[in-house]
Amino acid sequence: MKTFTYRTAAGVADGLEPGATFLGGGTNLVDLMKLGVATPDVLVDVTRLGLDDVAELPGGGLRIGAGVRNSDLAADPRVRGQYPVLSQALLAGASGQLRNMATTAGNLLQRTRCRYFMDATMPCNKHDPGSGCPAVSGDHRNLAILGASPSCIATHPSDMAVALAALDAVVRISGPTGERTVPVTELHRLPGDTPERDTVLEHGELITAVDLPPLEFATRSTYRKVRDRASYAFAVGSVAAALQVTDGTVRDVRLAFGAVAHKPWRASQAEEALRGRPATRESFLAAADAELGAARPLRDNTFKVALIRNLVASVLEGLS
Amino acid sequence: MDLVVNGAEQSLDLDPRTTLLDALREHLGLTGAKKGCDHGQCGACTVLLDGRRVNSCLILAITLSGSEVTTIEGVDHPVQQKFLEHDGFQCGYCTPGQICSAVGMLDEFSQGWPSAVTGSGPPDLSDPEIRERMSGNLCRCGAYPNMVPAIREAAER
Ligand SMILES: Cc1cc2nc3c(=O)[nH]c(=O)nc-3n(C[C@H](O)[C@H](O)[C@H](O)COP(=O)(O)OP(=O)(O)OC[C@H]3O[C@@H](n4cnc5c(N)ncnc54)[C@H](O)[C@@H]3O)c2cc1C
Ligand code: SF4
Ligand code: FES
Ligand code: FES
């Protein structure tokens, strides 16, 4: 590991000196530092800023502090009751030990598990811009089928982020130039020609909280994750969904896919295709097809298209 | 930096790169917590940090000023006796991590925390619940079938 200096953050608007990085629970950043992929000169610890509350918003909904641990958030009775999809997504991720350290902001900003990215000795446009993408012709079984570019086909690995995308969560950001908010669906970028940038955050911008707007029918929501072993493994594909059905007709729906793109993938076209349609397996499959028409799978991940399609149908059937 | 380890105050002068696991093993001579993968993937390094189970290999010790750490050397819990009675281990390499994890897990369970296999009601400590909650601890010897009843019985006491 490259050496660095350590300090605790004094305030949320302090920003970062050049070469500095925020440190949350460290479960991703410390790992990448050991691997020589992350090489910060300064670590600025933000876990002592007191951003660790889950509070009710005046008009309904919840404000989740950036430093709330994933385990505390998953167990919060308000989250379990009003937004079960979020609790389930958190519990589907990592392990009890890791969730006790992992923070809301750190989880959102965790980096791809693409094996070439995590190997500092390999070329990779994300950790070494311009060096190429060995995954396109190499190991891409678990990489993107939607929104990728020839420069990078990485997937965002977070489970939590998929639920937040489905719930229209909003990220609150603070930095030296002031405060702003960004919808979770617009926090992560598509790779394009600049895959080295995961998100729209500028250097020194700190996530302070994530707001969950009220969504009454989210009491009927769920997260389903497919992975290579029963537990403690990243998703191969996942679906977060909330569904409102009256008299057999889909009144409203929220859908997002995980492990298919450089960002948690909000399936807006599928949602559009479903509103007002009968709540049947046929409509669910048609809606999935509307979204997956844009899929461009590679040699070893074509299976993900059918996987997501079937997941959408079975998750929505389960909710209706 | 100062932290409390197994009830004793410790003052350490550490390179900022030192993980909690290395601080315990190399600086304090507490070799119970094991280095399996050093990347959060196996649970052999599990200790209790302010009462909660964590992987000590992914935590920089320098961040822990004022915290309390309990390692297997400081654990005194019925689950240990139950591991003996049920042969909950073979080579023993994963065992300190399994025990610390079980202690933390039973505490989480008693606070009503759900797991990925919990339905909407209050959780009960069924075998699938124990397996899911302990899935962050791998055992290369595959001693899982004996650990499950050991943990279940420790919880019943
Ligand atoms: C073995 C293993 C298995 C895992 N399995 C899963 C899984 O199945 N599903 C899943 O979703 N995740 C999984 N994870 C990943 C885990 O969820 C993340 O490592 C964790 O959520 C990161 O949170 P953290 O607080 O530790 O982040 P850190 O490692 O501290 O930080 C991550 C990034 O966020 C930045 N950051 C942190 N806080 C802020 C802030 N407030 N503002 C701005 N930037 C900030 C840091 O600079 C860094 O770039 C796994 C991890 C491991 C090691
Ligand atoms: S997919 Fe992206 S992260 Fe993986 S090797 Fe290619 S450029 Fe790097
Ligand atoms: S050594 Fe820490 S999890 Fe494997
Ligand atoms: S007893 Fe040998 S690794 Fe678990």
Ordered list of secondary-structure elements with their pairings:
The complex is a heterodimer of chains A (320) and B (157).
Chain A: E1 5-8, E2 20-23, H1 29-34, E3 42-45, E4 54-56, E5 62-65, H2 70-75, H3 77-82, H4 84-91, H5 96-101, H6 104-108, H7 160-166, E6 170-175, E7 178-183, H8 184-187, E8 206-212, E9 221-226, E10 237-246, E11 249-258, E12 265-266, H9 268-274, H10 281-292, H11 303-319
Parallel strand pairs in A: 1-3, 2-3
Antiparallel strand pairs in A: 4-5, 5-8, 6-7, 6-8, 9-10, 10-11, 11-12
Chain B: E1 2-5, E2 8-11, H1 20-27, E3 46-49, E4 52-55, E5 68-70, H2 78-85, H3 95-110, H4 127-133, H5 144-156
Parallel strand pairs in B: 1-5
Antiparallel strand pairs in B: 1-2, 3-4, 3-5
Helix pairs in contact in B: 2-5
The complex binds flavin-adenine dinucleotide (FAD), iron/sulfur cluster and FE2/S2 (inorganic) cluster (2 copies).
Notable characteristics:
heterodimer, A: 320 residues, alpha+beta, Enolase-like, domain 1, five-stranded antiparallel sheet, four-stranded antiparallel sheet, 11 helices, 12 strands, globular, B: 157 residues, Ubiquitin-like (UB roll), DNA polymerase, domain 1, five-stranded mixed sheet, 5 helices, 5 strands, 33% helix, 12% strand, binds flavin-adenine dinucleotide, binds iron/sulfur cluster, binds FE2/S2 (inorganic) cluster
